[in-house]
Sequence to fold (297 residues):
Amino acid sequence: MITPFPLDRPARLAVFASGRGTNLEALLKAFPRGNPLGEVVLVLSDNPEAPALERARGRSVEALALPWEGRRAFEARALALLWERRVDVVLLAGFMRLLSPRFVVPWYGRLLNIHPSLLPDYPGLRVHQRVLEAGERETGSTVHFVDQGMDTGPILLQGRVPVLPGDTPEVLEARLLHLEHRLYPKAVRLLLLGLAFPPPEGLLGLLGQEAARLFQGLPPREKPLYLRAWALLRVWEKEDLVGSAFLGRAGAWGRGAFLAAHLLAGDHPALRAELMGLPEEVRRRAEAVLALVESPS
Ligand code: GAR
Fold:
């Protein structure tokens, strides 16, 4: 199965956080209890002192500390809790531990992380300091599917901000957090609507040789656009067009899918105007999806 989403009920979300929890707060606001798309039902922390736990309790969401006594013990308890609480999706939000394959493999595709850089650049710690030292003029944040590496795994969504003269790591951090508080809920909406998934297995059979090769050769940051276009064609019941759309040969549906896929990540007046010029049916379908993702619930 390419994606289990959308579900025919609100998805049950768990958030793992180690510290401050401002991204958790954004997720709690975006996915409160009763939200038709998804609701945060559980917050776990490896740190009993994490302010994140208080934020969750303040909104009457179950919040548990699993003090770190080694990876094996933490993961066994966390996996059991996720099972007991019938969790569908796990969101890492400032969770500063590496999870092992024992955890990651069964959750692959339903386990997301947010990292404050334009991955694959600057994984790891002290990101803002390193970005400034390198003289970058732009940085950003990435929501990605978690795999077995540290801050690796297929990209779901990225946002960008400029680096300005005089910026300090603290100023950059605040700018990035502001971005992240919108980016993470949007990425989760895309996942839950079935509009984002990691590259499926068996691309050759699904896409044909030419399109599969093209996709495999794309840089990691460009793949999410193609996967969103794929997802849109699935939602529109035009999945047979995916391979030819990747090659730019699927006519109006292909163009509509790529324009909408781009607009799902961020508004762009020129692309919106181009969408307006497409046949009525394509335009209507594209606008309906955009409205769904842009609406707050
Ligand atoms: C966020 O900026 C998040 O991207 C980063 O930790 C911060 C947590 O802030 N995560 C990582 O660096 C993961 N490698 P928060 O606790 O206020 O949400």
Notes: The chain has a mean pLDDT of 97. The longest helix spans residues 169-192. The chain is about 45% helix and 15% strand.
